[in-house]
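Hallway conversation turned thread

IA: we were arguing at lunch whether anyone had actually written out LysR family transcriptional regulator end to end. Turns out nobody had. So, for the record, here is the sequence (298 residues) and right after it the structure tokens. Reply here if something looks off.
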Amino acid sequence: MLNLQRLTIFAAVVEAGSFTAAATALGQTKAVVSFNIKQLEVDLGVSLLMRTTRRLSLTDTGERFYPRCLRLLEEAENLQEDVQQDHAGLSGILRITSTPEYGAQVVVPALAAFSREHPQLRIQHVSSSYHADLIAERFDIAIRLGQLADSSLRAAPIDSFAILPVASPAWVAERPIKNLAQLAQAAWLAHSRLSAPLSWQVVTPEQQAVLFKVESPPVIMADSATALLAFAQQGSGVALLPDWLVRPALESGELYVLLPDHQFPRQSIYALYPNTRHVSEKVRVFIDFLRARVANNG
């Protein structure tokens, strides 16, 4: 029978990179940490860590065991939280990551409201454009926008949104855009994280689906939608951005939509969570809460 405390210590050692750092993080002595790692290896009958005077690293077996160890610890934590749940609401920690822009506009307000309903639940929100590894970084949920890559994670649809080609009034005045061919020749601003940022299926006013592709490389690339929005407002070129992000700038006249009678493909919003046999109550409840809140605010 595996000892969950020893699994916790093993995960802490891997994350901290040394017995000493793990001992400090756990509030234990180095001797206790070392003893429990040795006993875990005895229980399993394998070596998990390679120890030298300079560094600590995982063996091949340890590399395979570590993610499974994290999943087991997560399931144990979720099971304990579900069993201990009472009428006061959810408890434990809900750890969520999202992009900075959608996080600020939608996820953080939803988390604030969710926290008021479940005061015993501690919430950790990480705002990043980087796609975190949910298992390795111990996230319960990741909010993702756009097309999903193949993954072993579960995906719950939350909402969808339009994307709009926008530019500043000064840029449009100097370079009026009348059709897709002219738009394809424009100075484009693109997100550096997209694998194919300048190619889309566009529906024309005649309801025909055509492939729209920009052949020239973008004049500016940035790693966030907020930066692209700022570049567009400064007259640097055309950016394809979410309607929920550009709406204030459109209403104030800082940006114009180019070819508004053409439809670029709608993008989806998903809540991703680990594909474990036991999905925690806090994950299920928050996904339902976020989906209902987005629907009501839409």
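OS: looked through it. The two ends are 50 Å apart (CA to CA).
IA: good, adding that to the notes. The chain has a mean pLDDT of 88.
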